[in-house]
Write a structure and sequence with these properties.
single chain, alpha/beta, Rossmann fold, 8 helices, globular
Length: about 270
């Protein structure tokens, strides 16, 4: 079914991606939104990467623009929403897809500066864009906010700062959903599992110093569904549903997109 977001305007924060062989969650989501009729503001701190996403959208006949900002900056996010409103006249969908984990460790070994950095990036990059978007969405009395968390929030993981930050996104989004329901605004979380994306694969190759093929094989083996990781498109299709009017009665949900990984017990 085409045109599921026809007439809507979306901001995709983290709509660029790190270099790699596959497509990232943010880029796949921006392209998917545009394919379904949305006008998309692709936001990234690396403008050249946002520009690449916009070029892909334009090549398919979609409408998009790029914007550079630091999603942890309150003023930067206010200016981002203002730029979206100026360019497209409104804001229907806010999709937050920023996250880092480099240097993380277990509770006994985490460094203070690493803890501060990961919590700052992963949480503020959700809180500040949402804070900036809420006045416009409340004025419109409508809006869909989608925050990207991780099954790390609910599964065992030795990376304590990353896990804590993702659990924080879940808790924040619950409060966001309940507090803004009276304004007609929905807020949901997608929790990706093991994904074959540039950040996940290239990051593991760099941190572990092993071949890419080994990283992919090991990660595939941990996924119950077909023993194969998901892709950025799997996250994008879940985001499409949550952004669309098909999900008009869905709010406050934490949706795993993980091939049954988080459903395993024991």
């Amino acid at each position: 079914m085409a045109g599921r977001l026809e007439g809507k305007v979306a901001i995709v924060v983290g709509g660029g991606q790190t270099p790699g062989d596959t497509i990232g969650n943010g880029r796949a989501t921006a392209i998917t939104f545009a394919r379904q009729g949305a006008r998309v503001l692709v936001v990234d701190r690396r403008i050249e990467s946002a520009d690449d996403t916009v070029s892909m959208i334009h090549s398919e006949g979609g409408e998009a623009a790029s914007y550079e900002t630091d999603a942890t900056s309150e003023n930067g996010c206010k200016e981002m929403v203002a730029a979206c409103s100026k360019a497209f006249g409104k804001l229907d969908i806010l999709h937050n897809n920023v996250g880092v984990a480099e240097g993380d460790a277990g509770p006994a070994h985490i460094k203070e500066e690493t803890w501060d950095w990961i919590l700052d990036v992963n949480l503020k990059s959700v809180v500040m864009p949402c804070k900036a978007a809420l006045p416009l969405m409340r004025e419109q009395r409508s809006g869909s906010i989608i925050n990207i968390s991780s099954i790390a929030a609910i599964c065992s993981l030795p990376l304590i700062a990353y896990k804590t930050s993702k659990a924080g996104i879940n808790a924040y989004t619950q409060a966001l959903a309940v507090g803004n329901a009276k304004h007609g605004i929905r807020a949901n979380v997608i929790m990706p599992g093991l994904m074959n994306t540039p950040m996940a694969i290239e990051g593991n190759v760099k941190s572990r110093g092993i071949a890419k093929e080994q990283v992919i094989s090991e990660r595939d083996a941990m996924v119950p569904l077909n023993r194969e990781m998901g892709t950025g498109w799997d996250v994008a299709f879940a985001a499409l549903f949550l952004a669309s009017d098909e999900a008009k009665f869905v709010s406050g949900v934490m949706l795993p997109v993980d091939g049954a990984h988080s459903a395993q017990v024991g």
